[in-house]
Design goal:
This is diguanylate cyclase. It catalyses: 2 GTP = 3',3'-c-di-GMP + 2 diphosphate. The protein is built from 12 helices and 5 strands. By secondary structure, it is α+β, with helices and mostly antiparallel strands. A 5-stranded mixed β-sheet has the order 2-3-1-4-5. It is elongated. 42% of the residues are buried.
Amino acid sequence: MPAFDLRTVILMSSVMPGLMALVMFSLGRGFPANIRGVAHWAAGALTVSVSAILLALRGGIADWLSIVVANVGIILGTGLWLVGSQLFFGQRPSRRFIALLVLTGAIAMSWMTWVQPTVAGRTLCMSAILTLTYGGNGITMLRFGRGSHSALFVGSMLLVQAVVTATRGLTTLTVDSASAGLFSADLIQRLYLTTGALMSLTVTVGLLFVAMDRLRNQLEQQSFMDPLTGLLNRRAFLGAYQQEREKAMRAGGLLSLLLIDLDHFKQVNDTYGHATGDRVLIDFAKRVAGMLPGSHHLARWGGEEFAVLLPRVAPDEAREHAERIRHGVAQKDDAALPRYTCSIGVACMASSDATIEQLARDADEALYGAKRGGRNRVQLSDNVILL
């Protein structure tokens, strides 16, 4: 039976994380600025990879490299992973805590290598520190990455490694393991080194998938979301309309459409500037979204014009929703913004007849009727059938 060479396992499994770190560095440079922490993950993976190679060369290179630099590098690398995860999920990074762990590790490794050499002391110290970094990162991933399978996988892997690392530290307290070397035949030591070597690769790949998942989700959101207000854009609104019409046609229901236009919005831009105009649009979107029922679809139709699709809502009820919006918007809510009002056109049709073109045409005619009538009004389309 061939010998199980831990040095070879560590060396072979340390190369790929380093290469993946370079890939992550390259991809991370093209990520949007709001996706943070990827560079820390890449730096951590590269640091862990180089440090693991130094560990594998123990006995063939100087102790200051294979013991002190290697162990401190692993502390730094896993700490960078933790800081990267905290930044990625919008949490306050524990930079000072990681710096303290790195400093503690450097002093402890130096002392227990040259001043008072002790294998058990080094093992216990490293196990305690790495249990903190692995465990902290695993908890961060599992707590804040619930919507991502990749994050849950990485978090689980980190917690498993934290348990193995803690077990390794506890075994150093026994007489048999107290003086065991890095590549001893001890089962726990073999398990620790093997899982650690494999974990560095799987976690690096997993972190890359976590970042790519975030990027994909963000790009998908941008494809159907108005970047200023956060509402649906027209394309997404038309998709929602199609789905709602199919549902309504099966049940024989109605579809109501509100077209809303902010009154004299050009004057707001001319008087207060476009920045204030943008803030008014954001304020309007936020306030209106809170006034509508849960089944609504609210979109920025274009410029200062907005659309609301109300499935299975009769004309009178649609007009009530419109009046509530008109009245609520007219009430000055933010002292830092100018007062503004809106005009609303309401259209309602049976789902079998309610093409988006016809609904929009009827609502648009009603909207212009509201504007001709003096603005800050709700106008019901002449083509609706009152129930």
